[in-house]
User: Which sequence fits this backbone?
């Protein structure tokens, strides 16, 4: 094993070379046999994925068609109509919350359904690039390890680095990311259920231009708060914080008007909850913007179609991968040369002794032909 080291500023790298003897025929055969089992499992999984996807697509399409035929639009979102109790209703309006969401540690306060604090730490990151080549009858692997400092939202464990010395990261962040969610969200007189609130995920970055530095040891630069002595030249372990929000729930001179959404759900008193269809599915739809009931269902049908084709493609890919793994053993036998032909000979000999084999040798010599064909393709 050999290694070379270099250091170019914040980028460091070294190269490690390992060598292994070329695997023998039995070892390659053992590896491909394991691949056959994995391929079989993948092949069977592809059928499960394809068939369950078709069932899901049909069930969803049937539920959407049923919902479109039953949905009603109340005359006003500011009145809970008793005649719509238990029915599928179409509601459009601006979001409203009862109180501001805030992060007092940084002086952030705003009316929104969700407020998210993002925390990133300046850390060492290892990048690994490998290439294999054959030399002196051995398979050698050259691995190049590069180390760069980057802002990352997750702690990068330096314990797993090939060379931790000089690239050690802190084991935790002093400040953690979190998301605050308003407990009650309304559209007019109607309260959104937890499932609808979860669908409000159109996060936008929050400008910090009008905020002051919250503490002496925190510096604001642009839309970031830095826990650093010098944000321009950060050190490993320094933190930076920024914010985003979703579902503005009040008109704001800087952020704009309150966010408007379209909801299709079952009316239960003043609550908007999931609606159960005859096909056994549930309807609980939320779209960002002002849409008619027909347009909202059309969007859902389009989304269902795209998801169906995406899962179909995944199923076909899994099927192809499974078949490739199962047939790889033919290539292994083809590489073995005389070994492979020797293994095939016992299959061919009985064929040659059969009556009429001299006049019809094609089917009987097929094992040898397959091995020779697969070897010629390598």
Assistant:
């Amino acid at each position: 094993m050999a290694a070379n080291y270099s250091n170019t500023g914040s980028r460091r790298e070294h190269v490690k070379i390992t060598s292994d003897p070329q695997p023998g025929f039995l070892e390659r055969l053992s590896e491909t046999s394991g691949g056959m089992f994995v391929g079989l499992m993948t092949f069977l999984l592809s059928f499960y994925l394809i068939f369950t996807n078709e069932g899901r697509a049909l069930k969803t399409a049937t539920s959407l068609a049923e919902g479109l035929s039953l949905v009603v639009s109340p005359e006003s979102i500011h009145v809970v109509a008793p005649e719509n109790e238990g029915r599928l209703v179409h509601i459009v309006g601006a979001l409203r919350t009862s109180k501001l969401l805030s992060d007092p540690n940084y002086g952030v306060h705003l009316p929104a359904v969700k407020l998210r604090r993002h925390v990133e730490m300046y850390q060492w990151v290892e990048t690994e690039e490998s290439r294999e080549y054959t030399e002196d009858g051995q398979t050698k692997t050259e691995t190049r390890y590069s180390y760069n400092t980057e802002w990352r939202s997750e702690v990068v464990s330096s314990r797993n680095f090939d060379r931790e010395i000089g690239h050690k990261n802190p084991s935790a962040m002093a400040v953690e990311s979190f998301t605050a969610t308003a407990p009650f969200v309304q559209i007019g007189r109607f309260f959104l259920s937890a499932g609808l609130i979860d669908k409000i995920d159109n996060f936008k970055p929050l400008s910090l231009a009008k905020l002051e530095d919250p503490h002496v040891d925190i510096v604001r630069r642009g839309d970031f708060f830095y826990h650093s002595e010098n944000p321009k030249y950060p050190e490993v372990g320094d933190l930076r914080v920024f914010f985003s929000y979703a579902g503005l729930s009040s008109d704001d001179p800087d952020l704009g008007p309150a966010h408007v959404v379209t909801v299709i759900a079952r009316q239960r008193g003043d609550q908007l909850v999931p609606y159960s269809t005859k096909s056994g599915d549930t309807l609980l739809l939320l779209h960002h913007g002002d849409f008619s009931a027909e347009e909202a269902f059309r969007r859902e049908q389009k989304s269902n179609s795209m998801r169906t084709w995406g899962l179909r493609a995944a199923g076909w890919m899994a099927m192809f991968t499974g078949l490739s793994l199962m047939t790889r053993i033919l290539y292994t036998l083809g590489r073995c040369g005389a070994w492979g032909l020797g293994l095939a000979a016992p299959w061919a000999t009985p064929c040659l002794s059969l009556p009429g084999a001299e006049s019809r040798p094609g089917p009987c010599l097929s094992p040898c032909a397959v091995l020779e064909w697969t070897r010629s393709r390598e």
About this structure: Confidence is low (pLDDT under 50) at residues 1-9, 343-378. Residues 25-70 form the longest helix (46 residues). The chain has six helices and 19 strands.
